[in-house]
């Protein structure tokens, strides 16, 4: 059984915290909404557990809570957004809105974001486009964590990419993935529990696959040299196209809080109606994913899924039952309340839910 | 030792063949150039060995040798090209030219291609953009060959995607990959030679990884559910956005020659100069790839490579020594000569080269 909080409770607590730090509503609102939606979709690594981290970034002034967003548009379909070192989520919601606006006009909108910070879950933004009957794509680089194919030392980050497409009769199809085989959180959890890793998840200092949770290990790219290649594409779009730092030059997320991170992101939106009747598109996409879901499964699998199917199931369950908060996350929330001099009573509004059933 | 042909010799023979079939130069020229460039880059699966197949497609009238290309432009950055069932390579070169033109104007150009046929090597087109100081991306779907994650029957194709970026002091960075773990050709070769497959390359009828070259096997997606997800993105862009068929509905490449294939492709070009000074971009990309190449390597590897490094090496060698033609491919070329009543003497102009050294 895990403590489950209704979104409104968390929202209330988060809002009080940001207000206490004089963060303006237009900056904190997308952050709160992004974290809660992400947790509702079951992507706990990028959900509300990041809230205390974000608060610390405001306190350390790594995050600029009063950014001066600037927009540079050198061509009809291309825009640069300078995030002025505010929250990556706030800047990215804005960037995606702009990309959608541009795509409505010219068919395709591309927006690069410079001087940003932690992206949050990439799917937040691609889904915005899909909910506007458009194709949404975006990506971000991150700090150096993943060993290149053939290497033994991390260079690129867990560089994430997402695509979303609107679909008839159900929520959008949405792929949202890091280019590492598994997440750093998963590895940390296995280490804590002293559980053996699966072969291929991580490599040791010699670059060899390692299953021993006691060894020092690094992440590897999913799919060998192909995943490594895809990660490089993301790095080029987010570092080289934007003028931001790359790989090992990037300020780490969880240390050096006095330093701004200067991350880059890239957003692309395609207006489907300029290529295809939107209703035909949505109907045929539904047909494609329903067809593949009906394919025969191998032993050990219940059904063929498509990207976003697990998240859709979790969203349904959690929208009713609430968001699971671990004991350690709850402790972190309470510490933030103490730090900011807020009443902790609101954090007693939970029920116990079995999230594994 | 393998027979090596100079590009001019092959070009001459291919040109005579297409002329004999009254294929207009503007249609056959991109095909010949695409196949030869692809072979020079070492991508033999998509190089000159396909020439006899393409000739058969003209003879069967699957390929329309006199297409009426039509362009539909519903917005400044978005175009649809109807290829009228001609060669995928001819249509795709045209589509990429249009996308580059559009990107010069609006910053981003997106072109979908409908009623097309075999794509050839995807890198042909992304490299065109990179050579124009732009970012090139394109993708294609193919016939059903790959088993979805958790399944045991092929559904999607080997759906390929490519990205290319211009770089200082060397040829562009170019990722060009199928979303299957390995190619069908590689599997066929291992079967012929009765060599065991590597674990994870293919699955048997039960969907389990299989290394026995005597079993009936199917391809699997690279990188598990992530590669499967990426393949779905390509399918949606090429099938659903274009209105073309998907997965199992697609006419196979090597059978049903009386049927047109109606494939779809998608092209995207981004004008770098609208986001970043082009010289800074190229200089910093060179710095990024040189930095990663200098990283420490694990046992069994000589160096860290980036996408396109192997192809650049092969291009250098083959530009001097010639293109390797296997005995079976040479036999196929000679059969085409006989079929078309052409002099086979030109196919005696080769030298023997050791391509493995």
Q: What layout of secondary structure does this protein have?
A:
2 copies of one chain form a homodimer.
Chain A: E1 2-5, H1 7-20, H2 25-40, H3 51-59, E2 70-75, E3 78-82, H4 88-106, E4 108-116, H5 123-131, E5 134-140, E6 146-147, E7 160-167, E8 170-178, H6 184-192, E9 202-203, E10 218-220, H7 225-240, E11 263-271, H8 278-293, H9 309-321, E12 323-325, H10 327-340, E13 351-353
Parallel strand pairs in A: 3-4, 6-10
Antiparallel strand pairs in A: 1-12, 1-13, 2-3, 4-11, 5-7, 5-11, 7-8, 9-10
Helix pairs in contact in A: 1-2, 2-4, 4-5
What key phrases describe this protein's structure?
homodimer, 357 residues, alpha+beta, Hypothetical Oxidoreductase Yiak, Chain: A, domain 1, Ribosomal Protein S8, Chain: A, domain 1, 2 domains, seven-stranded mixed beta sheet, three-stranded antiparallel beta sheet, 10 helices, 38% helix
Explain this structure to me?
- Two copies of one chain form a homodimer.
- With 357 residues, chain A is of the alpha+beta class.
- Chain A folds into two domains: 1-59 and 313-357, Malate/L-lactate/L-sulpholactate dehydrogenase, four-helix barrel (Hypothetical Oxidoreductase Yiak, Chain: A, domain 1, Orthogonal Bundle), CATH 1.10.1530; 66-180 and 221-293, Malate/L-lactate/L-sulpholactate dehydrogenase, NADPH binding domain (Ribosomal Protein S8, Chain: A, domain 1, 2-Layer Sandwich).
- The first copy, chain A, has helices spanning 7-20, 25-40, 51-59, 88-106, 123-131, 184-192, 225-240, 278-293, 309-321, 327-340; strands at 2-5, 70-75, 78-82, 108-116, 134-140, 146-147, 160-167, 170-178, 202-203, 218-220, 263-271, 323-325, 351-353.
- In chain A, a hairpin with a 2-residue loop joins β7 and β8 (170-178).
- In chain A, α1 packs antiparallel against α2, α2 crosses α4 (88-106) and α4 packs parallel to α5 (123-131).
- The radius of gyration of chain A is 20 Å and the shape is globular.
- Chains A and B meet through β4, β8, α7, β11 and α8 of A and β4, β8, α7, β11 and α8 of B.
């Amino acid at each position: 059984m895990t403590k489950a909080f209704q979104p409104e409770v968390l929202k209330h607590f988060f809002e009080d915290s940001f207000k206490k730090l004089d963060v303006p509503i237009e900056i904190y609102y997308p952050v709160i909404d992004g974290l809660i939606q992400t947790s509702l979709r079951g992507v706990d690594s990028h959900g509300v557990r990041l809230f205390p981290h974000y608060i610390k970034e405001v306190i350390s002034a790594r995050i600029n809570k009063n950014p001066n967003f600037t927009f540079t548009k050198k061509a009809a379909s291309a825009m640069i957004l300078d995030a002025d070192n505010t929250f990556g989520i706030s800047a990215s919601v804005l960037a995606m809105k702009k990309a959608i606006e541009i795509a409505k006009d010219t068919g395709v909108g591309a927006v690069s974001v410079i001087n940003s910070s932690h992206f949050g879950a990439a799917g937040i933004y691609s889904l915005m486009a899909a909910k506007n009957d458009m194709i949404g794509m975006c990506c971000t680089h991150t700090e150096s964590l993943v060993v290149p194919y053939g290497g033994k030392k991390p260079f690129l980050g867990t560089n994430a990419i997402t695509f979303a497409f609107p679909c008839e009769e159900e929520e959008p199809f949405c792929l949202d993935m890091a280019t590492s085989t598994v997440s750093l959180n998963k590895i940390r959890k296995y280490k804590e529990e002293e559980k053996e890793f699966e072969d291929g998840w991580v490599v040791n200092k010699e670059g060899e696959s390692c299953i021993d949770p006691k060894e020092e290990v690094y992440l590897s790219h999913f799919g060998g040299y192909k995943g490594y290649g895809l990660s490089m594409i993301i790095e080029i779009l987010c570092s080289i196209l934007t003028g931001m730092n790359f790989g090992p030059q990037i300020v780490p997320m969880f240390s050096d809080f006095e330093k701004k991170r200067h991350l880059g992101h890239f957003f692309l939106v395609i207006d489907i109606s300029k290529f295809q009747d939107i209703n035909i598109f949505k109907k045929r996409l539904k047909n494609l994913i329903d067809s593949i879901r009906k394919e025969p499964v191998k032993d050990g699998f219940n059904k063929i899924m498509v990207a976003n199917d697990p998240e859709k199931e979790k969203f349904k369950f959690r929208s009713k039952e609430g968001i699971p908060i671990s004991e350690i996350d709850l402790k972190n929330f309470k510490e933030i309340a103490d730090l900011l001099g807020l009443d902790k009573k609101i954090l007693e509004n939970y029920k116990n839910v079995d999230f594994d059933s």
